Amino acid sequence: MVQAGKVTLTDQHHQPLHMMGTHTNINHSKLIEAELGLNRERLMLATESAGLAVWEYDVEQGKLTWDDKMFELYGVYPLTFKHRLQDWLDLVLPDKREEVLNRFEDALQNHSILSFVLPIRRPSDDLICHLHCQAKVVRKVNGAAIRVVGMSRDVTESENAATLAKFIEERNTRYRKALDQIALTIAAKDEPFSILESACESMAKALKADRGLVYRLDDEKQTIYGVTEWLNQSPSDQFPSILSDYDFAVLPKSIAYVKETHDWIVSHQHSIDSHIKQDGLDVYLHQELSIKSLSWYPFNFSIAGFHLLGFNWLDTYYEPTLEDKRFMASVAQLIELALVKIKLLTEQRLVEERLKLFMQESTTAVFVTNTLGQYIQVNGASCQLLGYTEEELLALSINDLCPNGFEDDLENINHELMTNGSVQTETYLKHKMGNLIPVAFSGVHIEGSGVMAFCTDLTERKSYEDALKEALQSAEQANKAKSEFLANMSHEIRTPMNGIIGLSEYAAEINDSRVLKDRLIKVNQSGRLLLGIINDILDFSKIESGKLFVDAQPFFTQHCSRSPSYRF
User: What letters, b where the CB count within 10 A reaches 16 and e where it falls short, cover 526-535?
Assistant: First the structure.
């Protein structure tokens, strides 16, 4: 209850004679006041639990009022704060002040709701924080702004998370773009330099480097060969090209470390790698070339050596992250696979070229079939052997060239090929004209592909064999005739020889000169006959050697008719 009174009449001494008073029940007002206090307490608890700070700006007086939480968020001591709008703007990062002020003034003029995130630097600990500011503009009836009431809360963690997410997405986009470009180059090119050149440029851009380099280190020749270089600007005195060939002696410690560990070498102007310092290149790289950061990444190790990717940053101290290393490892593996593919393709092309040259130049017929026995490749010698054109042969199969009656040979050849993988035999093929061609067949089964066969024409050899058989038969007949001739000659020789021996023995026992003379004449005739037989044998030898000549000599017929009588 509230009591109020007033004196209405006084005496001469100004003492009250009459008083009027009122009694007012304020229980309801007390309840409302208590409820407001409770609501204010609840609001303070809610804002505190939500991390909210309350502020108010009196537009007409230009006075900014903060609660305790605002001073805590901004890292400002209350006694130093002058409650001016400029004091608040001074806490905003310099590059954002104009934007924040423009948005605040725009809200005063045109809007009733203000909501934005502003970056500040806290004076108490010099930390950069991000605060989300929400406010409402209270206006007069005519629309003029009276005051702005708002709340602020710390969103540094969420802003940092959003910034990090944006950075990761942007970085991953750069990585994907680099990998896609390298993959496209690998798909379109089969030459190592093009792939390494694309990888050098794409990776340097993905890492935001100022320079990218690729070197090949040759262990046998102890030489570092410059392969390709990418620069984000034209070479100049400040940014000269360093792509060249060097001796291993230039980087002995660094090369030994890379070969042993297969790991990065990273060096900064303020923290030089120990291996580079031991090699004596720190002054050249970090001072003469003005490189703030460099990294060398090795890959494609082999007995012959390895490749080295180099990246330089002129104005940034760049430290490769785990994600960078994973990205580099992925690219290195991709390049290694591409180089292996190129090597295999090169070897395959070389084999194919050699095979093609062999098939073109070979006098041996070559046939290549698929798994169905259809010809897929033939050479000129095979066409010449069988009388077909290449197009005609490629339209045929093995069965089409197998003569009638030789199906068992074909079945045996197929069985040997499937069982042992190869076969060597002799068989016959059918010529386009229908005649049979004897061939020496040598085939190899190619798993999953078909058969490659080599056929050599045996027609001439077969002719030689037939001629040899005929010659052998003729020789055997001649030998038989010679044996018969020798048997006859031996008989012919024995007849006069017996006469000479017998008559000479008989003449020794005869004293009659007439009889003795007759016997000696017969011995002489037998000797002459024997000499004639021997001369005839010699004439046969001359006939065989082709040296027989006819020598015409006179003779008397009566002598020839009488000579047989002298033999006996």
Answer: beebbeebee
Give tens-digit pLDDT for 200-254. Answer: 999 999 999 999 999 999 999 999 999 999 998 776 666 788 889 999 999 999 9
Residue 407 tokens read as: 């199906």
Tens of pLDDT, residues 138-151: 888 888 888 888 88
DSSP line for 335-376 = HHHHHHHHHHHHHHHHHHHHHHHHHHH-SSEEEEE-TTSBEE
For the record, the structure tokens of 394 come out as 């490629």
Residue whose token pair is 């031991």: 278
Phi, psi angle pair for 7, to nearest 5°? -75, 130
Distance of CA 35 to the CA centre of its chain: 79
> Taking Cα atoms as reference points, which of 122, 118, 124 lies closest to residue 101?
118
292, 314 contact by CB (below 8 A): yes
Strands (E), 220-291: 223-231, 246-247, 265-268
Q: Are the C-beta atoms of residues 317 and 295 closer than 8 Å to each other?
A: no
- Taking the C-alpha atoms of residue 275 and residue 257, their distance in angstroms, rounded to an integer, is 8
- Structural tokens at position 543: 């006939």
CA distance 152 to 133: 5
Give the number of other CB atoms < 10 A from CB of residue 23. 9
CA distance 41 to 485: 153
320: helix, strand or coil: coil
Cα separation of 494 and 499, whole Å?
Answer: 8
CA 196 – CA 182 distance, rounded (Å): 9
Q: Tokens 């592909």: give the residue.
A: 449
Question: What whole-number distance in Å separates Cα of residue 176 and Cα of residue 539?
Answer: 102
State how far the Cα of 68 lies from the Cα of 131, in Å rounded to an integer: 16
3-state helix, strand, coil in the chain (%, to 5): 50, 25, 25
> Tokens 């930390």 label which residue?
127
Collapsed DSSP state (helix, strand, coil) of residue 421: coil
Kindly tell me the burial class for residue 75, based on how many C-beta atoms sit within 10 Å of its own C-beta (0-12, 13-18, 19 or more).
middle
| Residue in the structure block whose two tokens are 């052998």 | 472
Amino acid making up residue 318? Y
